[in-house]
Specification:
By secondary structure, the protein is an alpha+beta fold. The chain contains 11 helices and 12 strands. The termini are far apart.
């Protein structure tokens, strides 16, 4: 009795169909430096442009979207989850001041459904175009028996470049600097294990629409991550930026503390912003304590910038002109490398 790869659950033809469907959208993220590799085994990028740098540093980052993919699966919405991946990967590069150059992705699934894979990758490519980087390659792997046919996971890696002398970070931060908040578009991609726990243990469902929200809970939870890379680069050109902090897992204070020297603190004011309704819905439904909310979610702040106080107003004008709601979140004070919300 003979058997085959297809009998084992792997459909090579479906994978090839997915590649055909995604090609046009991937092309939208192309940069001039991308070089075609006829074999398709590798993504090629012409780095001769880096000769204009005195001492170019390559920056790299890798991440996934976590358990938010489960909500995308349950709702059957696949064209936004790629934005989340780009936000998680590429905006980490922006923290050190790096210009994103290119990205690759990896999708593992129980069964290749070409249209679904094309939607996922198309979302990645669209967000790469927003961030100014090229999607130069990726891989889709079918894992029958390990994942259910409708299950998938998503990860990626990105590379950027920054001039060594322009590298941002804690060593540039000093007391008197201003901390600027950039609004998140929602929960972004962190804290979804807690979200799923709340859904499983309370009366909330993805179809619920609490009075505080203007959409269903599912729609609100799938709001794609805001991609800040180009906004951060523009801010570097328009203000004296000392450091950035990408507000992901761990919350606002913990992530901002990573961008502080051991001799300074960040004093942050809760009164400086109104927490978006989605967070209050989750807090109240799950009876989640403030400390747990703070260390799990971004609470409405997706990226923070530390700038010299005399350029703070210019920074706010620049960000708001770019349709990134922003405000003065606090200031840097003498201290021991901690961030405090009060």
């Amino acid at each position: 009795m003979s058997t085959s790869y297809e009998a084992a659950g792997v459909d090579i033809a479906a994978g090839e169909r997915a590649v055909d469907l995604m090609k046009s959208r991937v092309a939208r993220s192309r940069r001039p430096e991308v070089v075609d590799d006829a074999s398709g085994f590798a993504g090629l990028f012409d780095v001769s442009a880096l000769l204009r740098y005195e001492r170019p540093l390559l920056a790299t980052s890798t991440d996934g979207v976590g358990t938010k993919v489960d909500l995308a699966r349950r709702l059957g919405v696949y064209d936004t989850i790629g934005h989340d991946l780009v936000g998680m990967v590429i905006d980490d590069l922006a923290v050190c001041g790096a210009e994103p150059l290119f990205m690759t992705d990896y999708i593992a699934c129980g069964k290749v459904v070409p249209e679904r894979i094309a939607d996922i990758v198309g979302g990645i490519a669209d967000a790469c175009a927003l961030a100014g980087c090229a999607l130069v390659g990726g891989e889709t792997a079918e894992h029958p028996g390990l994942l259910e046919p409708d299950e998938f996971d998503l990860a990626g890696a990105g590379t950027g470049v920054v001039e060594a002398g322009a590298l941002l970070g804690p060593e540039r931060v000093k007391p008197g600097d201003a901390v600027i908040a950039m609004a998140s578009s929602g929960i972004h991609s962190n804290g979804y294990s807690l979200v799923r726990h709340i859904l499983a243990t309370t009366g909330l469902t993805l179809e619920s629409q609490p009075a505080e929200l203007t959409a269903t809970l599912g729609e609100e939870l799938l709001t794609p991550t805001r991609v800040y890379a180009k906004d951060c680069l523009a801010l570097i050109d328009g203000a004296a930026v000392r450091a950035f902090a990408h507000i992901t897992g761990g919350g606002l204070a913990a992530n901002l503390a990573r961008s502080l020297p051991a001799t300074a603190d960040a004093a942050l004011r809760r009164s400086s912003w109104t927490v978006p309704p989605i967070f209050e819905v989750l807090r109240n439904a799950g009876n989640v304590q403030t400390a747990d909310m703070d260390k799990t979610f971004n609470m409405g702040v997706g990226m923070a910038a530390i700038v010299s106080a005399d350029t703070a107003d210019a920074a706010l004008r620049l960000l708001n002109d770019r349709d990134v709601p922003s405000w003065i979140l606090g200031e840097i004070t003498p201290g021991t490398g901690k961030a405090f919300l009060a």
